[in-house]
Structure formats: structure tokens, C-alpha cells
């Protein structure tokens, strides 16, 4: 069954989700209409090279606006250097915007004093989780620390039991928890990175190419895990990826970035079937060319979406 949702730009040129449910081949993925993340006119410029006025300005994110509904997975695609990671880092609070607004559950992401407001509820998982872990500490310590920080009053033995449970949820054993990051495979490290992110009970995960470095079979397992975690914990995802199959498997809507701007934002199936912006058409057809219709990628992915 075709996707029933419809997203249209409002009179400010901003796309907002307007559906309650996606139905895909008899399976449903519920999400609410409530927007939990609102991004408005977001800009970030980097100044690189040279001295003083000789510096070059790179407008990495250039006036980006969109909403994400609770429980939704929004994919973010675009060529290398289009600004996807910068946008993800801005939303996760790792970078401060030059201008524009990020509002999560009605509250601005930065307070008047320049401090992050959503440290806990928005977490980020990177492609290379190896470098995101401390190489000198076993994995379970690195999950325990954020857990304890955000669960004051929980005894150490209870915290350890909860960390063991988190490892289990992501498909790891207590034995994996005792290893150091380099003693895990890439897929196991991504599972551990997800467990660590979940330790603080986030609501939104920014997933910055979390499966790009994995081989095909491990990638499929992690995508399946992401689907399950989303259902179990009611998570919302901003999913950055190059791989369009993976985006089709996981995402309700997809935003296409080009030179720091979102040039198209649409329901995944309608974007894959009929991209409207010339850059989206070029991007999609450069990956797979089947009579200009990529609907089959979306349909083939339906079995995984759950
Ligand atoms: N810390 C930084 N300092 C200077 N320039 C940066 C910095 N981070 C990103 N850029 C530049 O901003 C632009 C957008 O980069 P970004 O990493 O966001 O793109 P991307 O779409 O995520 O690319 P990729 O898919 O290759 O990861 C690029 O021109 C990049 O070189």
C-alpha cells in the first residue's frame, strides 16, 4: 500500500509533517503529529585558512528550516560536503549556530548564556564510534559513567545491572562490556555506542552515518536494531547517510541537502519515486538508474522497516 502521508511546504516555505501513520505493505509505523524538533533559518559558517581578511568562508549550513515529529525518522542525504554532519552536530549541540533557531519540545537549544539546554535528550552516534570511545577504558565503564551521571540516587549495583541490560538490548553480552573498544568489531562498537547513547534515556538520536563503515550483512543487523530500538523506546531519529537503501529502510521522510540548504523534503517513497528538485533527481539517479524511478528501492526495503 502506498504511503498516505503528504508533506507540503507551508506559507513560510517550511515543510512540516502532517500525517499520523505510514502504511507500507500492510505494516504500519506510527508517529505523532506533534513536532518535537523545530529548526528555523539555521546558519553555520566556518572560516578557514589564511589570516584575518584572507580567511575563506564556508557556509556549511545556510538557512535550514524543518520540523521533526515525535517518533519520526528523518533521513538526511546529499553529496559529501553538503553540510549534513554540520547540521547534525548543530542539532546535537556540539556546535553553536551563527544564527537561527533550534527548538526541542518548545525549548530553545541554547540558553541566553550560551549553554546547551538539551544535553541529555539529544544524543549523537557517529560513523566511527572507535574514536568516540576512550581507548583506555572498558566499554561497560563508558556506559556506566553517563548512566550514573543521569540517574542520581541509583546504587552502583543497580547501575551495573542496568548497564548489563542495555548491553543485552543492543545484542551484546556482559563479556563484550568487559572489553576495550579496540577489542570489538565495528558492528559491536556501533552496538556499544547505541547502548551508551541510550544510557541517558534520550528522545532524539542524531545518527551520523552509523552504518556506513560496516559491511553489508552487519549493516543490515544494525539497521534492524535501530528499527527495534525506535519501537521499544519511542525514539526519534535524524539519520544521516549516503546509502539510499538504508535511508529507505529506516526513514519516514527524507531531506536532500545541497550546498548547505535543504532543497527538497518529502515522504521517502515519493522522493524515491519522483524527486522534484533537479539536484535530488541527479543525486538519486547517480546512485541507481532505473528509468528514473527509485520506488523499487523503497519497496524492497519495506520488509526491514517493520
Ligand atoms: N570544523 C570545520 N572547520 C572548517 N570547515 C568545516 C568544518 N566542518 C565542516 N566544514 C566544511 O563545511 C562543509 C560541510 O561539511 P560537512 O561535514 O557538514 O558535510 P557532509 O555533507 O557531512 O559531508 P560528508 O558526507 O563528506 O561527511 C564542507 O565544506 C566542510 O569542509
From TrEMBL:
Transmembrane segments: none
Domain of life: Bacteria
Gene Ontology biological process terms from the UniProt entry: transmembrane transport
CDD domains: ABC_NikE_OppD_transporters
Residue ranges occupied by any ABC transporter domain in the UniProt entry: 46-284
Swiss-Prot/TrEMBL keywords: ATP-binding, Nucleotide-binding, Transport
Zinc-finger recorded as keyword: no
Pfam families: ABC_tran
An annotated Gene Ontology molecular function: ATP hydrolysis activity
Family stated for the protein in its record: Belongs to the ABC transporter superfamily.
PANTHER family: D,D-DIPEPTIDE TRANSPORT ATP-BINDING PROTEIN DDPF-RELATED, TRANSPORT ATP-BINDING PROTEIN
Protein name listed in UniProt: Peptide ABC transporter ATP-binding protein
